[in-house]
Amino acid sequence: MRHDRAGLTGFAGSIGGGGLLLSLASVAIVRGRRTPKVDIEVATQEQEGSL
Hints:
The protein is an all-alpha fold. It is 90% helix and 0% strand. The protein is built from 1 helix and no strands. The chain has one helix at residues 5-50. It is rod-shaped, with a radius of gyration of 23 Å.
């Protein structure tokens, strides 16, 4: 049985690239959800301190 090395390499690269994109997207989603909440808390504390 012979395997096409170029085809297998392309397939492995596609799987690896997809996994990398999935990881980056999940990090971006988690960081994106956290940032506004922290900004709102800081803004609220600043307003309470200035009154």
